[in-house]
Description:
This protein is 38% helix and 11% strand. It has ten helices and six strands. The chain is globular, with a radius of gyration of 17 Å. It catalyses: Hydrolyzes single-stranded DNA or mismatched double-stranded DNA and polynucleotides, releasing free uracil.
Amino acid sequence: MNVNIESGWKEQLREEFEKPYFSELANFVKQEYNKHTCYPKGSEIFAAFDHCSFNDVRVVIIGQDPYHGAGQANGLCFSVNDGIAMPPSLINIFKEIEADLGKQFPSNGNLKRWAQQGVLLLNATLTVRANQAGSHQNKGWERFTDAVIQAVSSEKDNVVFLLWGGFAKKKGSKIDKTKHHLLTSGHPSPLSANRGYWFGNRHFSQTNKYLDENGYNNIDW
């Protein structure tokens, strides 16, 4: 696996790429992509970093796994490619934005437009085998994405972290809460959202309020 990643991230994560676990992870991913259909496509494994440079990060959203259905995953958590039907969690995200900010429901679920404004859309695991959720977990990706979160936490100030659901909240232990803003709620999946743990969290307006107070441009959600 050739780690072709935005230069600011490459500098921050240089030591991580040289560790033995990352070599083992790279070999595992290469074998999986050779033997099986895996997502996202190889050129998009590090898309979250390529569309949101280290210097530009103002908001971090943490997902768990890439989508494992054909054509869905594009390397950004919760995001799907143009022309692909929106999964239920993404629909619930847009419903909350609509209620929170009065924004019209978008025509597609491609969140590159968020990433290009400084939103790091980070899955904890960056690859998955087709139709097998969680198939690339516990192979090293989680250690790598922990290092990503720690780099943002230690090297930047006043970043908003949106932690949705128990898995993302656990990742929050890596974040310095004295200089960053953490917003937590249930996961936007129907199971959680329909039990009252998602809708009404107003994370999108709260994020913009915090960014505004700290001299940053709002995110056009």
